[in-house]
Amino acid sequence: MDIEIRPIAAEQWAEFARVMGIVFGESHSDEEVADHQRGFEFDRSMAAFDGDRIVATGGADSLELTLPGLTSIPVGGLTAISVLPTHRRRGILRAMILRHFEDVEARGEPVSALGASESVIYGRFGYGMATMFADYEIDPRHGAFLPGIAPGAGRLRILEPEEAAKVLPAFYERYHRGQPGEVSRKPAWWDRHVRDPEWARDGFSSKVDVVYESEPGRVDGWVSYRTQERWPDGFPGNLAKVRMLVGLTPEADAALWRYLLDLDLVTTVRLIDRPVDEPARWRLADPRRLRTTHVGDQLWVRLLDLPAALAARRYATEGALVLEVTDALRPRNQGRWRLEGGPDGAACEPTRAEPDLALDVATLGAAYLGGPRLAVLARAGRVAELAPGALARADRMLVSDPSPLCTTHF
Predict the structure, then answer these.
(1) Among the options 16, 40, 101, 122, which is catalytic?
(2) Can 42 be counted among the known catalytic residues?
(3) Active-site residue among 127, 175, 225, 410?
(4) Class assignment of domain 134-296?
(5) Cα 360 to Cα 66, 74, 111, 254, 363, distances in angstroms
(6) Active site annotation includes 122
(7) 369 in helix, strand or coil?
(8) Is the pTM of this model over 0.90?
(9) Domain coordinates of the chain in residue numbers?
(10) Which residues contact 29 (CB under 8 A, 6 or more apart)?
(11) Which CATH class is domain 306-398?
(12) What is the CATH number of domain 3-109?
């Protein structure tokens, strides 16, 4: 059977969503299907058609990614990828991803990024696992701070939905511009956040948005959470699930944590998509009480225009490296590249010089945002050090502070 890959029109969305539901084992209400359609970029959509039937889906979000050194680049955020079980192993996924690469290149985006449903799939297409996160739980009855650590002296305010719609997008923009690994959020994302549809609550309460103001009108922190009512044996045991907690200053961060740990009737605070190196642990008098319940990955990065991508970010220390890169799908990325960079700028050009390091494009994508150190990847057999001291030099250049984090799912 011949398979044709082409964009879809809005009137084909219901069939497109039904195919995704079959593949992911999900059932969606009409409201949820309509919500997912809002903000979907039909000009970046792709569907595989077997005759007149959709058998595979895909698309991309036009996003802005913050890099180490707090520069940013446009990226194509690969999304909505699914292939019906009846049409697996026919090269459909490969064909769609190569089409996506062509679209990203045509739009002048040097990088593709995604959140992987299965981590075994995307490495073979050159994506590297670039950001990690951790989930935590704590019983707030054991949430006392160390002596001498106090929350900031600003004020906390609960936002009504109308105010949240005005305040939070601008605050998030400030935050994401200062956090490597974060991506922009579309107006449709904020529309759904403010409306807080029932389908998104998963058995929890409506969400609560709280901001910390260091002075009237200046928002330096935001926490968004839901609660689930629990009364085991007649005693209060509510669960507070925290989706976002962002403090732009240590005082704001401490104030928001203190707010959560002082909630009435709550015996478990669960925080998701947090940094693996969570600073709040070091405020606690009993740090062991902050239990890590899960560690996972979020953003996978695929360098499509390798020299443009490497030149776009900044580097922690001045230095130069010659990288020998293999890239089976993008031959123009393959070969030797001289990277020179520092805090104020970078350049990446082809070279015939002897290489310092040898690695494939997926490994370079994993290290691109300053997440895994190349020395660690070398111990895993994914980087070859060809010149003594090159790994240490590379790690000094590539490190990111803060560590990369992505809290936006797409």
Answers:
(1) 122
(2) no
(3) 410
(4) alpha beta
(5) 23, 23, 15, 41, 6
(6) yes
(7) coil
(8) yes
(9) 3-109, 134-296, 306-398
(10) 199
(11) alpha beta
(12) 3.40.630.30
